[in-house]
Design brief:
The chain is an alpha+beta fold and about 325 residues long. It is about 50% helix and about 20% strand.
Length: about 325
């Protein structure tokens, strides 16, 4: 049968239709045709394009600000709390902060758009549907969204001024890790004492990336039903027996019955016999008048404990 052709123009596209017998076949426009201005559709005015740019940019400014602000604050908080407690990497904390940020974006994304609309910052578009479909209009919208999200993320990044210093967080992480390791070690030792103090040299603190002002404090543990306190201090705060131990390079035992405090001090050495610090075990005079002294076996245990602490300081940080 003979072929009959009919062209039907639609408002939204220029697809032509070919009638072959009882079948209708659609003929698509040639490639590249959609990038041209459509016949009969006038280009938007400069004012309309500027309004389109602002309409696309402002919501993305709010989105970018909230996304970056929440991610930085949540990531910093997670890093300084859960990160320190469980030894999480900084990137892990940042990833968890991003999850919080994305969830917040889903929950409150429409709130930003509504706030901008109520503030009257956006003017209603006067463009027709066909004009909004023009490639020129779509490129302007894309450019506005890109510029808006860049500005918003930049503004959100200002929250970095309110995040604790990374070096301080890292120092706190190392101090807490060292306290935990020493607590586990000294809980298992057989030295019966009231107090254990680990004095670290300034050079040791520097090699660990810990400043003297970051150091200090104590961790309390229980051993054999007697409460034992563990202190971490710098060598400049060390006791006279510990200072003598550091100078002589050997153990110092003070068991004088006239003293209210009996001690065993043993040096902590690293490679090449470098002094890393001193560990001191102390017994204080009891209120009930009971006398207690250190024996030779406990002096040997103190030396072994000092060697183990030296290994920890050199290989665990």
């Amino acid at each position: 049968s003979s072929t009959k052709t009919a062209s039907v123009a639609e408002a939204t596209n220029s697809t032509s239709w070919e009638l072959k017998g009882s079948s209708i076949i659609a003929k698509r426009p040639t490639p590249g045709g959609s990038s041209q201005r459509k016949p009969g559709v006038a280009n938007p005015s400069w004012a309309e394009l500027k309004n389109r740019f602002a309409t696309s940019a402002l919501p993305m400014v709010g989105f970018g600000f909230m996304d970056n602000f929440i991610m930085i604050q949540a990531g910093g908080y997670i890093d300084s709390t859960l990160g320190v407690r469980f030894g999480l990497a900084t990137l892990t904390a940042a990833a968890m902060g991003q999850v919080v940020s994305d969830v917040s974006g889903v929950l409150f994304g429409s709130t930003v758009d509504n706030a901008i609309t109520r503030a009257g910052l956006l003017k209603p578009s006067q463009m027709t549907y066909a004009q909004r479909r023009l490639p020129l209009t779509q490129r302007v919208s894309l450019a506005g969204a890109v510029v808006g999200v860049i500005i918003g993320c930049g503004l959100g990044a200002t929250s970095l001024f309110f995040v604790p210093d990374h070096k301080q967080s890292e120092a706190k992480r190392k101090i807490d890790k060292l306290k935990e390791i020493l607590s586990n070690m000294l809980r298992a030792d057989d030295i019966e004492c009231d107090q254990c103090i680990v004095y670290l040299a300034e050079s040791t603190l520097s090699s660990l990336g810990i400043g003297g002002h970051d150091f200090g404090g104590e961790t309390e543990i229980s051993s054999n039903s007697d409460e034992k306190k563990i202190h971490l201090q710098t060598m400049k705060n060390s006791s006279p027996p510990s200072q003598q131990c550091a100078q002589d390079g050997g153990s110092v035992v003070s068991n004088s019955s006239s003293s209210d405090r009996k001690t065993i001090c043993s040096p902590i050495h690293g490679k090449n016999n470098t002094l890393l610090g001193v560990v001191e075990f102390a017994i204080t005079r009891r209120n009930d008048g009971a006398e207690k002294s250190f024996g030779d076996g406990e002096e040997q245990l103190a030396k072994i404990t000092a060697r183990h602490i030296g290994v920890v300081l050199e290989h665990c940080f």
